Amino acid sequence: MRIEDLLKRSARRFPGKAALVFENKILTYGELDDLSSRFANALLAAGSERGERVIIYLDNSIESVVAIFGTAKANGIFSMVNSMTKASKLSFIVGSLRPRFIVTQTRLLGTCNEAVANAPFVEQIFVSDDFEAGLGPPEPLASRRRSFWRVVEAAVAAELLPPAIDLDLAYVSYTSGSTGVPKGVMMTHQSSVMGAGAMIEYLESRDDDVILSIIPLSFDYGLYQIIMTAMLGATLHLELSFAFPNRIMRKLASEGITTFPLVPTTAAIIVGLKGLGPGSAPTLRCITSTAAPLPPAHSARLQELFPSARIFSNYGLTETIRSTYLPPEELKNRPTSVGKAIPNTEAFIVDAQGQRVGPGVVGELVIRGANLLRGYWQNEEATEKVLRPGIYPWEKTFHTCDLFVADPDGFLYFKGRMDDVIKSRGEKVAPREVEDVLYQLKGVREAAVIGVPDPVQGLAVRAVLALEPDCTLKARDVQVHCARYLEDYMVPSSVEFRGELPKTESGKIRRRELQDEAARGCET
Amino acid sequence: MNPEIKKAVRAFLVDNFMFRGEIDKLPDSSSLVKAGILDSVGILLLISFMEDTYDMKVSDDEVEPENLESVDNITAFIERKAKGGAS
Predict the structure, then answer these.
(1) Which residue of B has its CA nearest to A484?
(2) What's the whole-model pTM score?
(3) Contact B33 A266 (CB under 8 A)
(4) Where are the domains of chain A?
(5) Which one, out of A237, A260, A453, A468, has a CA that is 20 to 30 A from the CA of A521?
(6) Which among B40, B61, B64 is the top mutation candidate for probing chain A, defined by the most A β-carbons within 10 Å of its own β-carbon?
C-alpha cells in the first residue's frame, strides 16, 4: 500500500466527505483525489520520471497537500522544507536532491530564487498564490515560474498514472546532523503506511475523527496528520499558525474537533491561558504530544481543561516516524516516561557492545520495525552509522544515538544524546551548524553552542562566546545575525560572553565541559 | 491613526523579525501571520513590547486577530488602550 492509495481508497468510500479544511475552504475526498491526479499528470507531462524529486517549500496550505499526493501519484519523491528555512540551507537541499520541480509561494520566492540561482536543473517553480498581484520580488528567473493552479486546472484528471509499488521512496526529509551537514531521511511508502497504521492503532483513531493541526507539514509529526487522515477517511482542519490561541480554542468546540496534536511549547501556551476553563472542548477525545515529555504540571492541567481527552505522550525521530508512546493511563504514574514501542515494532536499550541491557542501565535506544528509514540521501557514511545489521540477514535496526533507561516495567526514559546534538523544542540542533554561523560574525574569536535545561523546550540553545578585545557585540546582535541564516529553533535563546572558553591542550574548545556546567547550574 | 505609534510598531517588527520577510514592503493592512512575520512566540514578544513601551496591560482575551494581526490593527489597538488608560 502506498500513500496515494490511502487517499484513493477514502475517495471511493467517502467521495463527498470533507478531507481537508483550511481557512474556510473545504476540499472533499473526491476533490482532493481529482486535484492531486491533475498535479501528477502535470508533472508527468513535464517529463517527471520515477523517483523525480519535488521540493515542497510552503506554509501549511491546501497546495501542500495536493502537491504531496500528486507527487506520490506521479511516483515522484516529495521533500517538505520548512517555510522558515533560509536560502543557504535551501540551497544545500536543492544541491543535494537536484529536483526538477519546486512548489512554493510568493512570499518565499526571494529565498527560493537565491537558492536556485546556481541550479539550472530546476526546470519549473510552481507558485501557489497569484504572484503577479503579490509582493514577490522582481526576479531574473521568471521563465521557470508557473502558476500552480493554472497548471493544475489545465492538466487532465484521468488516471494515466505510472505503475508503482510501496518499496519506492515516498519522501526525503532533512534533519540536522552532528557534523553540521543536514541529512536527508529516505522513507519508503511501505514505512510511511506502516507508521501511520501503527499510530492509528494505539490512538484508536476512527473515520469520524476531526483532527485540528497547527503543526507544519514539513515536520513529520505534521505530515502524518494528513497521512493518517487519508488512511482513516477522517477530516483534517489545517491551521497556518498558533499565533492566536483563543481562535484555535474556539475552533475546538465549534468544529467538533476530536483530536488535537501538540508540542510542549504549544501546550505551555494553552495551560497559561487565563480565560480557558474545563470543558470548553467537549468533543475532544485525543491529545497527542511529541518531542520532549510534557512537564507533569502541564499534562495535569491539560487533563483538567480537557477531561474527555486521553493524553498521549510520544517520542520519535524523523528516522522512525514514531518510536514509542505512553498509554494515557500511565501518565499519572510515570509522567516523564515516553512509554514503550509502538505496535509491531521493538524498542530496546543496548550497551557499547550492542548487548541488550536490563532495567536501570543507561544505554542507546535501538528500534526494530518496518517503520524505519532506508538510509540518508546520498550519505552512506551516515547511513552505516545508524542502520546496523539486525537479527535476519536482510534486516537493519536503527541506532538512535539517544540515551535511554528503562524502569522495571520496561517503560522508557530519555536521558540525553550520545553526540553533541541538542534536542530543543523537539527539533535536533547541531551545535556545529550554529557555531559555523557564529564564526561568520566579525569579532567572534571562540564560540560554543550548548543546551541549557528548560522546562518547556527540553533544552534551550545557548551561545557561549569569547570576543576580540575591541569587539562590542551585544547578545541581540548575535541573535539577529543567527536569525538571518538559521531556522528559528536554532537561534540561541541566550548568549553568554566570556574572556575565553575552556580548551584542550591541543586548543580544541571543550564544549562538553560548558554543557556539564550548564546542567549542574540548573540542578541547584 | 497616530503616525508615531505606527512608526514605532514598524520599527519593533523590523528590529525583531527582519529576516522573516520584507516588512518594509508589506502594506499596513496585511496579515503579519500570513506574511510569516508573527507566530506564537512573535505574538508574545509583541505583547511585551506594547506593555513596556505604552504602559498598558494586554489580557489573554485581547490576543485576537482584530487587535494584533496587522500594523493597522496593532496601531489602533494601542491607541484605544492608551485612551482608556491612566493618561
Answers:
(1) B19
(2) 0.92
(3) no
(4) 29-188, 242-417, 422-523
(5) A468
(6) B40
Q: Which residues of B touch A (CB under 8 A)?
A: 18-22, 25-26, 33-36, 38-43, 59-61, 63-65, 68-69
In angstroms, how far is CA A281 from the centroid of its own chain? 27
Whether the CB of A250 is below 8 Å from some CB of chain B: the reply is no
Measure the CA–CA gap between A321 and A77, rounded to whole angstroms. Answer: 17
Q: Do A242-417 and A422-523 share a fold? A: no
| Helix axes A220-232 and A189-203, enclosed angle (nearest 10) | 80
User: Which chain B residues have a beta carbon less than 8 Å from that of A110?
Assistant: 22
* 8 Å CB contact of A107 and B18: no
The full DSSP string for A70-95 is HHHHTT-EEEE--TT--HHHHHHHHH
Q: Which fold has domain A242-417?
A: Rossmann fold (3.40.50)
Q: Would you say A232 and A200 are in contact if contact means Cβ atoms under 8 Å apart?
A: yes
With contact defined as beta carbons under 8 Å apart, do A54 and A99 qualify?
yes
pLDDT tens figures, A363-398: 999 999 999 999 999 999 999 999 999 999 999 999
- Where does residue B76 rank: exposed (0-12), middle (13-18), buried (19+ CB within 10 A)? middle
CATH assignment of A29-188, among 3.30.1490.20, 1.20.58.480, 3.30.420.40, 3.40.50.980 = 3.40.50.980
φ, ψ of residue A424 in degrees (nearest 5): -125, 130
Mean pLDDT, range A481-485, rounded to an integer: 89
B26 with A480: Cβ contact below 8 A? no
Fold annotation for B3-84: 1.10.1200
Which chain B residues are closer than 8 Å to A63 by Cβ? none
Q: What is the ipTM of this complex?
A: 0.91
| CB proximity A59 to B under 8 Å | yes
pLDDT computed for residue A523 by the predictor: 56
